[in-house]
Known about the structure:
The protein has 15 helices and no strands. It has helices at residues 2-33, 41-53, 62-97, 109-123, 126-129, 131-153, 161-185, 188-198, 211-226, 228-234, 238-243, 248-270, 276-288, 292-316, 325-349.
Amino acid sequence: MEKHKEKDGSLKAVLLAAGIFILLLFSVMAAILLGSSDLSPETVFAVLKLKLFGIENEEIPKNAVYIIWNLRLPRALLAIAAGGGLAVCGVAMQAITQNVLADPYILGVSSGATAMVSFLYFLGGVFVRISVFTQVGAFIGAVLAMVLVYFVGVVKGGSSSTRLVLAGMAISIVFNACSHFFIALSNEQATRSITMWTMGSLAEARWGNLPYPLLASLAGLLFFAGNARAYNLISLGDETAVSMGVHTAKVKKWTMLMVAFVTGILVASCGIIGLVGFVIPHVVRILVGANHRKLVPISFLVGCVFLVWMDVAARLVMAPQELPIGIFTAFCGGPFFVWLLYRQNQSANE
């Protein structure tokens, strides 16, 4: 009977994943079609056939190829990388910390990246005129934060996830102070640019800078999915996990390093996009339960769909002006966060 229920649950999870994947394909097509420049579905398909299969069409407008292939499609792919990557990083952090409020930025990666970007905008000149400097600087700041958290949080003989999280909070305070210092010394334009960067944007997405976030996101998905059994057992308690053969200290350490690595690359590519790694795991947990074999891949797909549509909203709400994508993730994630706290309070009172 239990095996039958397990098979039935697995079948439902597969069907749900297939449905979300189809929705993702539709979402990508919508993201390519929608924008400040009006393009027909026929034009979109004609450009895709030209670029993917070499089928030429003389009726394609000259600017359509550039808009569709060089601007909108890379943005949609970066949204997939960022949304999926942050979602599975959130799942992993909530699993190993056994904290429902954990997210990918809990290790101080975002604070380190922000501090370095603030420093570059304070310097000005070539460091902000060429976007690659900002991206490399953000990644260096994220890695620096990760290294500091690791050395502060790890003690001889191992370390607890709680100690590493506390180290992340302490390092974040230091880096936030550095960010505020550089912002206070910067001019008005630099301050505005830093503020916009901290709210996230996919505007810099191009084919040349897509491989890193896509590969990092895929690596995170495979790593976390491969450790799904360990996460399931850790959620029952470290003692139970150890008795079942899980090396909890090793799993937690490598999970945190992978989270920091993936998050660092994503932050460097598109700034700080908040609440994705916190909200999406909770939404999917409500749909499929706490089994990480289902939770990790479906969270990845839902994160992809979610961020693709958030980017569409960021481009359309005040078109042709673009808003930071973090505004829309906050609008969606904030109310859910309040509802989650209310639900926990209700459960505690019952």
